[in-house]
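User: Fold this one for me? It's Chloride channel protein.
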Amino acid sequence: MAMWQGAMDNRGFQQGSFNSFRSSSSDEDLMDIPGTAMDFSMREDVPPLDGEIEEDRSYNGGGIGSSNRMMDFLEEPIPGVGTYDDFNTIDWVREKSRDRDRHREITNKSKESTWALIHSVSDAFSGWLLMLLIGLLSGSLAGLIDISAHWMTDLKEGICTEGFWFNHEHCCWNSDHVTFEDRDKCPEWNSWSQLIISTDEGAFAYIVNYFMYVLWALLFAFLAVSLVKVFAPYACGSGIPEIKTILSGFIIRGYLGKWTLIIKTITLVLAVSSGLSLGKEGPLVHVACCCGNILCHCFNKYRKNEAKRREVLSAAAAAGVSVAFGAPIGGVLFSLEEVSYYFPLKTLWRSFFAALVAAFTLRSINPFGNSRLVLFYVEFHTPWHLFELVPFILLGIFGGLWGALFIRTNIAWCRKRKTTQLGRYPVVEVLVVTAITAILAFPNEYTRMSTSELISELFNDCGLLDSSKLCDYENRFNTSKGGELPDRPAGVGVYSAMWQLALTLILKIVITIFTFGMKIPSGLFIPSMAVGAIAGRLLGVGMEQLAYYHHDWAIFNSWCSQGADCITPGLYAMVGAAACLGGVTRMTVSLVVIMFELTGGLEYIVPLMAAAMTSKWVADALGREGIYDAHIRLNGYPFLEAKEEFAHKTLAMDVMKPRRNDPLLTVLTQDSMTVEDVETIISETTYSGFPVVVSRESQRLVGFVLRRDLIISIENARKKQDGVVSTSIIYFTEHSPPMPPYTPPTLKLRNILDLSPFTVTDLTPMEIVVDIFRKLGLRQCLVTHNGRLLGIITKKDVLKHIAQMANQDPDSILFN
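Assistant: Here's what I get for Chloride channel protein.
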């Protein structure tokens, strides 16, 4: 009895209980059941003639018995019919068809009255209004997260006596006792040792500050993991793998609900402030998608149609990247390249508008006080030279190697977490990793600072007034042409910084493997960029010193004369950051545009493109999957990747169910089964839908009906219609079948029947079937032979077959 199965058993419907179905839903969840009546019935565009109506009313198939009435209760729409179960896939074709019918009806009515015309205009404008609201809310939340995280990060080291709500930088802005060289030191800002033991010098003061740093980190991490565990388990991780799966049509109730949004926003601040090797950029995409899903409830057009809602979520993902990096165009391209499954041209325009509004909102809030959208915005003015493509490509190779290494080790650790006792103690795991990170981070100033500040320091192009150790060069010149500093010999501070950065690189590489995937909000963009930026800065300083001391070498003498500004180490850091991020995520176009928007320089596109492509080639040679696709496979999400080709020569008959020697396909007949027969099939099976045939002997296909719609319709008929009993005949035809007199009323369910299910023949190549599933977003496809129904292929069957052909475990394709 091989039938189409959902990703999980429909436990609430085993006994056909509509009450259990209603109790399992929540109005703030991703796929809610609206309390208002929804008209998902299949309507004709041309109304029937009066004579046809009278004929339909007069024909009831019941002979002379007045009690034998035709019960077509679906003439009135029923809440819940046409919606989907949790952990199931939406029917893209049906959803788009419904939207076209709705739009056609609104257009026809707009010609009848002024009010209908106004309604038509408001319906067309509602999409842009929704994008405006998403941009405003996403930008506001991003600004709140940035400000809060900056303050709480500084709280680990001290507090401002003028006002505890000021972070370190803001506390010293208005101080009259600050020198330019020591602009981070002011009497208004007190470290914890100054507050506790009234001194900031000596070994005991260092121990006090060390202890308070670790204590605050543990407190923030404990609060974050506890809130996630108790209130919103879906708020953990970056959220991008799940969002990719949801945008492909899968349903995860509550993943984009209001509780997830509230807890994710709070715990993201706590997790970033704890000093763990994670970022807020990935989770900001989840936050923006939560905003989009919740705001969809204000507009019936999006609340009642899952395909339209996913267009909104694609635009919300673009807004999330826009506020994460201050890159509106990069956000749109990220949504198109990385997360979206269905991205029509209309969604492209609206994504651009949402990203624009979100970036403008964040710019108005000005969370960093520098009129920039990110902390590590930088501008370079020195041109790059052709020879420098060699070290840029080397950084690309490093990024690809790092990406492949990280994906393999992180997936292995996450699999160990899922399959061992470790996964049962998420709080202990988070606290242990936080303690190790804080203890190792405090002695090194580059690991002690936040990762965004570290990237900003590494991207920085040293000037005369910079007091950073990375800019501690020996000044052996009198003037500088055009305000540009020539290459200079490194001083003691630079050499000290190089050793510290090398240790920082090792710590970041190791600790990020164990941090990503814990039960707290954790992004991967910033840690990956930090690894690449450190490697790039180390290589850039090395190239700079090589050019200074050996400017007469053949590789330098044609373009780098003594006293010229030849090498920009900050540019190498930026290219390295792009290479490592590309190696982990396998992004290319969107990555280059994001980095370009960060720097504001068109002339650095070629180095970024070279590094991004090299890192992708190297990483793909070692493993085809990016980190998000790898986590999708690890979690067993039914995601059909559109980027991979299916190259095996198998046929539909090799994949369909039932297989040879399996029980026959469970089907419903169009006019010969009773309510009891159908309820028995529902209670004895867990299939999510049933083909409807003319008869069991002929196996001629009529249509396909969903289990959920059957349960709701029968339950509603029992409650609202008199005379419907277990022996009532259910029929899916236009007219009721001839019945003996004085039989119970028949039950017409034609309006919940899909009359045009997608079918293929048994000899159709699987490469065509896979393309059909990808491009049409099908849930299932029926297999026929000479017009007779043979079997069924579901999306999960396709995924299992692909896994089997790739020598992977096919049973891993289920929602874990």
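One thing worth pointing out: The longest strand covers residues 788-794.
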